[in-house]
Amino acid sequence: MATSATMTTDIHANVIEALGNTPLVQLNSLTKGIRTPVVAKLEMLNPGGSVKDRIGIRMIEEAERKGWLKPGGTIVEPTSGNTGVGLAMAAAVRGYSCIFVMPDKVAPEKVALLRAYGAQVVTTPTAVERDSPESYYSVADRLTREVPHAFQPNQYFNPMNPRTHYETTGPEIWAQTGGKITHFVAGVGTGGTISGVAKYLKGQNPGIKVIGADPEGSIYTQPDDMHTYKVEGVGEDFWPGTFDPTLVDEWVKVSDKDSFTAARRMTREEGILIGGSGGLAVHAAIETARRIDDPDALLVVLLPDSGRGYLSKIYNDDWMRENGFLSRFRQQARVGTVIAARSAETPNVVAVSCDQTVADAIELLRQHDISQLPVVRNGAAGANGVPGRIEVQSVAGSVQERGLLDHLFQSPEALNARISTVMDGPFPLVDANEEVERVVPMLASGAPAVLVQRDGAIIGVLTRADVLEYVASHRGS
Fold this sequence. Notes:
Layout: E1 24-26, E2 38-42, H1 53-65, E3 74-78, H2 82-94, E4 97-103, H3 108-116, E5 120-124, H4 136-146, E6 150-151, H5 160-176, E7 183-187, H6 192-204, E8 209-215, E9 250-254, H7 256-270, H8 276-292, E10 299-303, H9 317-322, H10 335-341, E11 352-353, H11 358-368, E12 372-376, E13 390-391, E14 395-400, H12 401-410, E15 429-431, H13 436-444, E16 449-454, E17 457-463, H14 464-473
Parallel strand pairs: 2-10, 3-4, 3-6, 4-5, 7-8, 7-10, 8-9, 11-12, 15-16
Antiparallel strand pairs: 1-2, 12-14, 13-17, 16-17
Helix pairs in contact: 1-2, 1-5, 5-6, 7-8
């Protein structure tokens, strides 16, 4: 039996010393049918819960060595949350105060988490240009100037960011795979992680391919069409100094929906709770592995953080539905499916021509027991208002039962007026393959109906009543 005198201890002096050496785990469920093996680097197992833990202490130590950060100083940093935690954790050990500036799109859990570390948090608008005085970069710069003894590590331009990953994350991956890694996939935000890891891995084997995962709307893959997106912590609207784009061999652009769906699948099928940026990387990794189709390859995907900071968002079904990322039906319902499932008693399209009268329109409404009609150019309506084919460009307007009643109440002689003189604008146009989820807001916000098109022709008129009937008959399906 071992005695206390012979037993060794494995105790870290502080939480900073517990950083790194996160495990690699093989993915199984998400890669079914894919021959290329995929393994994930679980960076959420760092003490602060993300890959950014690695750079927090390194940037602080460098600032201390160079005299930029002195005892009692304040650390100011623009962050989407994870870098803030890494800095706050290191600041707690070193005895500094922290002020973090965050875009308002971040999950409330992240704000609460930083405050739990004793940091001050300032939130700023997301949808503003980088050089706007309101941007989180500009606000952080202003606070750095105004707060006494403040220092901004600036992860976007601090060389310790990529250097940390060159010296720690890259060597870990190389050693853990026994040098067998052939592909590395990571989301790109500041670019520090992918640049540092890629530089190290390519130094060991120049043949290793590095794939950058980027959200739709980011400068990296859409420099001419940048726009806001929901996924946090990845993508940029400018080129950070910490990113070396020459080290990225390929890019995979990923939508918000695909990012969040992949994150939820990872949690439910692999038992690994990850955030949206991890979902983005996983989606890109699965696409890449499927394309490679090589059982002798080895793809490593880096998962930057845990999903615990996103429980109110991507793991909240209501939030996902409100943002159009989750269908209310177990199987996504398409508009064309609703049209096809409708009763055959009413034709899919009933229309009135511009040269017909109000009386003609009223008769069509009565005959088919409907409340609205699209108005088409002369001759396109067909017999009894049921056309053979209506081209999208032939739609001229619309009429509704209520509107016709108003016209007749004000002027009874309007019964003989041409429809073209009383019609309203056309109903909104949607594709037959569009999800019902995305059409409901149109109907709820004022449109009484939408025109459904396929291959340039109108195939149906979808009304609020149609959607209500479909929802009622497909609850839980």
